[in-house]
């Protein structure tokens, strides 16, 4: 698969799916669900210019430190000594892929809606914590070094998960009183289908093709543990 990918005989999407499968990740286990990278950082422009490197996320850094401002807090957390010496050092107390995160993204489609309600003891979590906007989700990642969720493959092929087709009552945001319904899209996307089309195009773009291996090193490769992981600020609890 690697050679085929290098020769561009298979797409970036297919290569990531194959890597996830080889790593034992599967759609059948929410705790080991396939993980895909955030690849863009421009969720505010009217048009998305895939020829401009500035619209892409830095794939060489874990999502928690893509915003340079967070690096200091992350290093401090790692250097904090556990007085009992029981806990290994870590940069992040949560993970880039977990069951709650998968349910968070897929709350509008079954069976994930029901699973989410079960997890929240029989009701929807409060509206402010729901996945309600792609630009807001990215902004929260940039502002908060403790939020390190990467994406799931659905962001590249499944427009339905961005629509509240079942008419679930997901509540209202506290401050703006906005009702949480369909997911708010970046300005450059005119519909869920348009978002998926452009996002997939971004995944297959020249920039991502040239840099995707840097992210793969963090998630599936040699920067997962040991000194390389420490240096890359990539140690998870």
Automatic annotation (TrEMBL):
Origin, by domain of life?
Eukaryota
| Record-annotated BEACH domain positions | 1-237
Record GO cellular component, one term:
cytosol
Task: State any single GO MF term.
Answer: protein kinase binding
The record lists the organism as Geococcyx californianus (Greater roadrunner)
Q: SMART domains under this entry?
A: Beach
Signal peptide positions are: none
Designated name of the protein: NBEL1 protein
Q: Give the UniProt keywords, A-Z.
A: Repeat, WD repeat
UniProt GO BP = intracellular protein localization
Q: Which gene encodes it?
A: Nbeal1_1
């Amino acid at each position: 698969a690697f050679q085929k990918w290098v020769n561009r005989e298979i797409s970036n999407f297919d290569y990531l799916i194959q890597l996830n499968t080889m790593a034992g990740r599967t759609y059948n286990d929410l705790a080991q669900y396939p993980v895909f990278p955030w690849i863009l950082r421009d969720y505010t422009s009217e048009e998305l210019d895939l020829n401009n490197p500035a619209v892409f996320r830095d794939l060489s850094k874990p999502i928690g430190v893509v915003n340079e401002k967070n690096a200091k807090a992350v290093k401090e957390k790692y250097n904090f000594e556990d007085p009992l010496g029981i806990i290994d050092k870590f940069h992040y107390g949560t993970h880039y892929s977990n069951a709650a995160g998968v349910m968070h993204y897929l709350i509008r489609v079954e069976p994930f809606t029901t699973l989410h309600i079960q997890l929240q003891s029989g009701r929807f979590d409060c509206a402010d914590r729901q996945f309600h906007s792609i630009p807001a989700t990215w902004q929260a990642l940039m502002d908060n070094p403790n939020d390190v969720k990467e994406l799931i493959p659905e962001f590249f092929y499944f427009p339905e998960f961005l629509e509240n087709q079942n008419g679930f009552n997901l509540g209202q945001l506290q401050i703006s009183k906005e009702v949480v319904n369909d997911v708010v899209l970046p300005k450059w996307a005119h519909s869920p289908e348009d978002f998926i089309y452009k996002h997939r195009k971004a995944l297959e773009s020249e920039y991502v093709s040239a840099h995707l291996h840097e992210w793969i090193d963090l998630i599936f490769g040699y920067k997962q543990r040991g000194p390389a992981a420490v240096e890359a600020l990539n140690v998870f609890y």
